[in-house]
Amino acid sequence: MNLDQFAGVNAAYVFELYERYRQNPESVDPATRKAFESWTPTDTTDTGAVTGAPTAKLGVIVGAANLSESIRRYGHLAARVDPLGSTPIGDPSLSPRAHGITDDDLKQLPSTVVGGLAAETSANAHEAIEKLRRVYCSTTGFDYAHVFVPEEREWLRNAAESGRFLPPMDQKHSTALLARITQVEVFERFLQRTFPGKTRFSVEGVDMMVPILDEIICGAADSGTRHALIGMAHRGRLNVLAHILQKPYSQILAEFKDPVNAHTLRLDQGWMGDVKYHAGARAAAPRGQMHIAMAPNPSHLEAVNPVIVGMARAAGTVANQPGKPRFEGASCLPILIHGDAAFPGQGIVAETLNLSRLAGYDTDGTIHIIANNQVGFTATPTESYSTSYASGLARGFKIPIVHVNADDPVACLEAARLAWEYRARFRRDFLIDLIGYRRYGHNEGDEPSFTQPVMYKKVGTHPTVREIFADSLLKQGTITPDISEALVKKHLTKLEETFASLKPEQDFVAPIPEPVPAGIAGKTQTGVATSELRAINDALLAEPQGFTFHKKLERGRERRKAMFANPDERTIDWSAAEELAFATILADGIPIRLTGEDVERGTFSHRHAAFHDANTGKVFIPLQEFAQSRASFEIHNSPLSENGAIGFEFGYNIQEPNRLVIWEAQYGDFINGAQVMLDQFVTSGRAKWGLKPSLVFLLPHGYEGAGPEHSSARPERFLQAAADINLRLVNCTTAAQYFHLLRRQAALLTIDPLPLFVLTPKSLLRNPHVASSARELEDGRFQSVLDDAEARTRAKGVKRLVLCSGKVCVDLISSERRAAAKNVAIVRVEQLYPFPRVALGDVLAAYPSLDDVVWLQEEPENMGAWEFMRPLLEELIGDRAPLRYIGRTRSASPSEGSSAWHQLNQKVLVEQAFDLESHASEGSMVLSKPVRRLTGSKR
Ligand SMILES: Cc1ncc(C[n+]2csc(CCOP(=O)(O)OP(=O)(O)O)c2C)c(N)n1
């Protein structure tokens, strides 16, 4: 080892080691010890290369090197990033004293001890250190020491220290920036004056959000990015809509006027609309071919995060070729704007960040901006987060962070340019912590000094960023005094003129979706010829050369090979039907994306969509390889997330609505972890924002004695949300029904899209009563009600009509009691919503001698479909027969915790269905009761 070759930081490190060695030779490793044994340092050259130094000087060199490292690492703690002037917390390691040295010591040392670009143009170490302080402790806090990849860290260091991302600030650029800031401010001032006290969530205090977006979006557009997808909450949203999405002022002003008229009142189409600061928009970009979109947003803060990254993933995915889809990250850019209280507080942020580097979810980097106004409604930072900064969570994901003072437009633009370049180069997330303040209260009607009196005293006298910037340009002589006022006037005049000519009723355009012709879903043909199915099945079962399947999976494959031997035999089980549905959809040219926890194998080890070579582990996905395919298939085991994962799929779905997107729950009840996504986006997105989602949810459901947590997918939750045209809920009981249902959903993607919730089986996956024949896949189509074919042949003798849904129907039809109960018909309600009124009416009409109609369910009375069905059934049945309820009594828990107790109740349930006289047996919680007609229900 030649010890004389080291310079700068490395030299200091060698000296530090040497010092350790000198004091205790055993404290360094043997190789280092050996090198030091034959080396006597005496001095450093002008370049800082180590040729030796008096030992006393070693400590100074080490101190200087450590000081420079501390500034790079902790300098942000001393940066003046708060426009309201709070004192930065600083850090002792930023002073020479902490390293046992003085400024004079530094002046004696060559600058190379400091290393990096700052050293290159400095006369000595002191000068270089001062340069570092200007970079790291000014109005920008570069916070990147937590980035683990050395190449990235070095790039970030050079980027910060070189200043190469500082924007050009000649007269033209400065004036353009001033004009933009003026536009932003004047818009808010105009709204404040014209609609005093009306909520708009002004951007003022973090006005630089708009120029930062300009810079990022223009950078992306210049590099050929085709889609920028923006997600943000209320703060500054109207301003971004107006100035980034180019939403016309007239539309925004009309929304303030809030006209109620024939254009907006479309309850007949389920239209409800939403407040103006939740609206989304799509716009043509300022440059090139780029499309910019802002997703509509619910009040639930940060919930839009996974939706945006899902949209970006979809926009960047090329799916029209068979096989695996291709992701082109450079074609899309997700941008998320967060609140400083919401970012650390809402778990969905962590869920979204966790998606950022996973196969199938990665977007090649999201740019995050925290609109940090240092207050959350009334909460202070110390009440809102345990981390040092609002951005703390991002550190764990190794995301570089720049804290920047929102009153320094040049520093803000540097942060934006750096963010874009880093994202483009390393294809990873970047975060800008834009630190400003909030000019008014949480909304414009709030009085902020009730809770933040000191802060608002400062805010009250604090000049706007426009004023500060104009003043600095004036002082530099870049602009003349009249320019600033002329800009204000120009933008104000435009707003005033727009307002003067406003016709709110015409200017207000609500994005109401086109009505869909009635009955399309019911008429959709979904059968596939047996010959075609057989050929596809053969292709799916083809073995790739040299691939070794797991021994235990061979039997299932053999069974599938024989599946089409007799088209009338019920040989096709649930998972085979699913695979055939997927394959035929792909053969029709519709891409499929299927995700969820452990979906590749399937929770119940039933799917095996991805095989792993038993010897090499290599993965083989038949749906990506079969010859008939005309579109891509992707399947991913999702991370252990529901809210984030579903939000992502929702975003993917609305961005690319012509692809079939399916999310599967491990067990149905886990979907309640995504209640926000369901309520705020999936089931209400159409009524509020005119979105047309068609996402499919597969939710294992059914009472099998596994306890309260794994029995119910909580269908009552979907039924409570069901209204107008917003979802389909199905609990189907045969493989053929499932096949047709999936194919129908694919066929309706563009003509009658609706979210589809499917309660799927567990043990029934392998139950022969659920299996179907090839003929049933060829001939049929999805039926919302399955009549009792056997009972129908003797319809006149049927006294009881049992209506049920899902697995419990199979319990009934496979019961040994059934053969003797000739007077009972078991009718399966396969689609719960939309309520199959016509089909059920036809069934009722076919049984003329009914003594009663029963709604039978395995869920407790306060759960399941009963409370939804009851008024609808009463109306439908009228005076024809009394309605009875058979099912578990009301309960706080979805099911028994004991398998034995479950068996008992399930047995009683079945007995009561067939026995017109029976009563609950001891120990059972099953209730059989006549239903008193609800008052007011129609006959
Ligand atoms: C999930 C959720 N919880 C609570 C609220 C109510 N709320 C609206 S704004 C707000 C404060 C947000 O503070 P911050 O994230 O700093 O954004 P700011 O309003 O300051 O821009 C709260 C608590 C909400 N909208 N969403």
- Average residue-wise pLDDT: 92
Oligomer: single chain
Q: What Rg, in angstroms, do the CA atoms define?
A: 34 Å
Helix content: 40-55%
Strand content: 5-15%
Notable features of this structure?
37 helices, seven-stranded mixed β-sheet, 939 residues, 40% helix, alpha/beta, eight-stranded mixed β-sheet, 12% strand, binds thiamine diphosphate
Descriptive report:
The chain is of the alpha/beta class. 40% of the residues lie in helices and 12% in strands. It is built from 37 helices and 25 strands. The strands form five sheets. An eight-stranded mixed β-sheet has the order 1-9-10-8-7-2-4-3. The protein has a seven-stranded mixed β-sheet with strand order 14-11-15-16-18-17-22, sandwiched between helices. Strands 19-21-20-23-24-25 form a six-stranded mixed β-sheet, sandwiched between helices. Strand 17 (728-730), helix 31 (735-748) and strand 18 (756-760) form a beta-alpha-beta unit. The chain starts with 7 loop residues before the first helix and ends in a 9-residue tail after the last strand. Mean pLDDT is 92; it is low at 43-54. The protein binds thiamine diphosphate (TPP). Thiamine diphosphate is lined by residues 235, 299-301, 339-342, 346, 371, 373, 375-377, 442.
